[in-house]
Every structure is written in structure tokens, then in C-alpha cells.
Design brief:
DNA/pantothenate-metab_flavo_C, CoaB-like_sf, Rossmann fold, globular, Phosphopantothenate-cysteine ligase, alpha/beta, ligase, 11 helices
Amino acid sequence: MASNETEQWDAFFCATKPPADYDEQKRRIDEFCSAFSDTNERVVLITSGGTAVPLEHNTVRFVDNFSAGTRGSASAEYFLDQGYAVLFLFRSTSLQPFVRRFKPGELLSYLQFASGDDSCIQVCADAVPKVQPVLEGYQRAMAEGTGRPRLLQISFTSLTDYLFLLKACAVALRPLGSRALLYLAAAVSDFYIPPENMPEHKIHSDAGPLQLRLHLVPKMLKPLICCWNPTAYVVSFKLETDENILLDKARRALATYKHKLVIGNELHSRKHRVVFVTSDDHEVINLTPEQVAAGVEIEQIIVEKLVKRHTEHMRNSPTRRSSSEVSMTVGSVSDSSSLP
């Protein structure tokens, strides 16, 4: 590993500030991951949503990346169905598992207040078929009453928040060895403004046209794979608007960072077509017209295929404990087709 690359990563973290609640978030991450360190269970880190790049220290304006968090939030549900515990690192305004199935504000319209001596809040009878399976899925994930939830959600807003928390998550999962899967679906900005170049207060328009000089963000995939968590099964995503360059860009990423898999998708077809790219092969995954009509989400297929690849990774990993542990963790906790 080149020393100048290491210096770039160190310089970035030294020059930027962690989230205001970083210590508390790190405590929650460490506590969640340590609960699975002495088990045979698999844990997936899913990153989801876009990262904001502030233009001022007292942020009013920012540059944002396109991402609603659809892929990450849907994938979290399907990984839970496959028996994984899920560490969900998501943009605060993006979609979340389970509640993603309701439109903004829709859930309140399904509730009614029943007054009286035993006043309570009830779900409207005609909304039960929609709300019940979602609520049951959430309660299974939170393992209510067992003391060990299988879903932890950690939010971020800015690019620097995301990178500090990504490192904390990757390091916390390191003791799990090959049982950890890193599913990096967040839309991470390639550019940022260093803190020393940002004004303290709001940029005003009376100064005339705004000219920005954005710096390249150091590529954090390399330290993640080489230093923070070298034994996990790491999956990154590549979104392009030109499908003709997608395979080449994905293979270049694999050659540069030495991870296991790139999932390529094109902006306008991403909801029904993706490409699994490895260093020596690629597999196109298309939803059939019948699957689309039936409401099948492509994330269900992605996760099912990833579970098989992760199993193979565990079998081939020198850090695995035994072959029986590999087989013990495969299979669904519940039938994913039962989700709405």
C-alpha cells in the first residue's frame, strides 16, 4: 500500500470533524456487533442513501448525491429474511426498512384514537392487511423481548459523518471475520470542500456568481478492505448513466481495490436490471415481465444470490471456524414472499 495513500486517508480524518453524536453512535455500533462475535450468525453492514457536502460550516447550502435509499432499505428486509443481522447505515432523509412501504404521511391515516377508560390507538380495520405484515416483520427484526435485536439503524447526513461511521462499523465487524458482509449501496460523493476552504457563515448571492473548487475525496474503499476489515465479503455498487462503460468501470474498481464483487446498474434500468461483476466473469440479472407484474423486487434476487456467494467466501476463508458453522447460518428465518 502506497504511503501517500495512507497519508491522504489520515489527513482527511484529521482535518474533518466526526458527527456531534459520534461517541454514542460508536457505542451502539460496537454493542450491536459484539452481540454476534461469539455466535455463528452472519451480519451485514448496509450503507444506503446519498451524502451531503456542505458549502459552509454553518450549513445552509450543500451539494447532494442522488439516492432515495430504495436499494439499501429493500435489501435490509431481504437480508433479515435470510437470517442475517443487519447494521443499517443510512442517510437521515432516505428510506428505511419496513416504513419504506408507506408513502410519507400515509401511516397516520391508518390509525385512529379510541377514547375511554382504556384509551388506545388502533389500526383502522381496512388498513390491517397492509400494516400487519410490515409490523410483524419489524418486530421480528427487533426481536422484542429477547434483548438482542437483529436490526440497528444508524443515520448520517454529511459525507464526513458517513465516512467516520463507515470506519466505525467496519472495524466493529472485524472480529466476525468472514461472517461479515459489507454491502456498500450508499451514493458517496467523489468531491468535497475541505474545512479550511469553507466560509463560516451562509454564502450570500449579492457577492455575485458562485465559483466552487471541489477536491477529490480520498478513496476509502482501499483502507476499508486492506486495514479496517480485510476478511469481510465486500460488495460495492457502480451506477452509471452510460451502460457502455459500466463493465469496464466495474472491473477497474475490482482491480484497484481487490474486493469480491461490484454490482453495476444503469440509472434508468436499475430497478429491473443489474450486473454482478467479478474479476473474471459477469452475470446479468433481469426481472422477467412476470416478476415485475407480480411485484417482485430485484433486491430479493440480489440478496438470494449474494447469500450463496457469501457462503462460498466463508468456506474458502482461512478465518472460518468449521464447515458446520457455514451451513448452520444459511437459510431463511421467514419466507420472503410473505412480505407485502
